[in-house]
Give the backbone structure.
Amino acid sequence: MRGRVPIRPWGGRVSFRLDPRAVVVFVALGAVAFAGVVANVGYGEYPIPPLDVVKTLLGIETGDAQYGFIVETLRLPRALVAVLVGAALAVSGAILQGLTRNDLAAPDIVGVNAGAGLVAVSMIVAFPSVPATYLPPAAFGGGLFVALLLYLLAWRGSSSPMRLILIGVGISAVATALTTVMITFGDIYQVSQALVWLTGSVYGRSWEQIWPLLPWLVVFLPLAFLKARHLNALNLGDEVARGLGARVELERGLLLVASVALAASAVATAGTIGFVGFMAPHIARRLVGPSHGGLLPVSAITGGAMVVLADFVGRTVFAPLEIPCGIVTSAVGAPFFLYLLYRSRKT
Amino acid sequence: MLRSRILLSLGLVVCAGILTLCLLASVRFGAAKIGTWDVISAFTSYDGSEDDLIIRTLRVPRALVAGLVGAALAVAGAIIQGLTRNPLADPGILGIEAGAALAVVGSVFLLGASSLTTYALFAFVGGALAAVVVYALGTLGGGMNPMKLVVAGAAMAALLSSLTTAVLILNQRTLEEIRFWLAGSVAGRDLSLLLQVLPYLGAGLLLAFVLGRQITTLTLGEDVATGLGQRTGWVKAGSAVAVVLLAGSAVAIAGPIGFVGLVIPHVARFFVGVDYRWILPYSALLGAVLLVAADIAARVVLRPQELPVGVMTALVGAPFFIYLARKRVKG
């Protein structure tokens, strides 16, 4: 392939190709995400100049003893959650779009997020003292259930992209209604906590929420990146993939589990932040092309930058009031979705 | 399927009977335990006791609101399904209800609107705008196919309701006033509110029933309708006005309630076939039955807590939507 540099460390036992363009884009977007984090950490009741934010992050003395506490304990976790959740949702969406060969698929659009959110909210309402560690696995169960349901109802034996999405819309409606039931059922303090899952917000996230999220990302993001090759094959259709020597059912199952796990752990941490899993892969595809080797990492960093910027916008536009970042991403993402839908109206 | 005119009329009478039973049940069951005889005495010998007050000022208006809103939504759904020849269409799914809701919330936020008449006007404007956008997406530049239109409507509903949430967060006062309304509910509406919206709702229903014949013709396809001498432009415009009036007044009084307009026309069509002169009245009665029954369930299931009735209709309607999508969407 043109422009790809093969890399063979450890005496050629492992080899992969590197697309220089993807690396450049990744670094550039990484800078954007970092700028978003710095802006988010600096902004607030007690403003901190960007340079001091960077210094504090690097552990250099700034001359203000307060900065360390404000940055590391209060504000950094929130910005980090935004980046991590955005990355997880974006990769999840990219995998789903690749697997279903459907441009409009994303974990939130097909209802995986709603299923994950429902189980997370039920856990909180039923067992108020549940530690945050148990939320991601529970949400994963809910998301996986929806994914299996989708697979049974819409996917198998049919290649109609619209049907998948329509059935996803229906499943989302059921899950959202049940979530409302759980919220009505629970008492009011838990409800205000649980409402976060319906809008998608990184408000008030602390290290307590980051630690349970991290293991999921550490396992499933690299797994997704390693499986990019198989995703490319599956994207060409089952027959072609089989012809290329891929174990279709196994690889598809693994990729699907990775996609659901990423989306569900993101939802368990920050609720259903809409349209990130849909938009980020599209932007990444414009930048680095459709090959998943470059697409997945670039999607991840795009999604991270997107959510952290959305959070910044949500905090600043109507300050001192805060708009949850899920609303900002939906306000941008839904028109984009309509545009793509309209552009593809002929097919 | 009922064929002869007599059978069809008889069916309507049966539906009306079921509706009456549901309305009575809705008055009878609720948080406060009131016996059947007390219900009757509240009408025959009103003496101002607590039970009589509950019956007259809370339960009766609530049952009536549920019935009227259900009828309005079901008829609106039937018209949309006929006009777009799309079995999955519904004022909720296509984003018309979300548009009306956003306009109402916006009017409370920006103009401090507080009377139901103002709510209704804004609901009409918002619903009409959303309908125009969906229609444009469905026709301009060759137009989307019906299934894509449904997906577009769902995306638009998502957009509009996230904007509604944003407005609500910006203004806590609005949130307090309107939160339960937004989930779709028929609780706590007194009769005077109902009377304010009734003219619009009645006009919408009347217009719909008048157009029944023309809509039936239009479902055969626009070319056929034109060939039969119909001025399709007028019929479409009239139907659209009816939909906006019905869906708008339903939203103004009860908030967005989904899936009634999706499910009921299918049920009606199952009984009476393809003739909209019959589908529309059947839809009205069955829609009323569904919403009154859903409202009873919403009150009884988690007693003493009460669920928004929109949740109940979604739990019934969304699986039906999935079933339709599986069955009707090919290729």
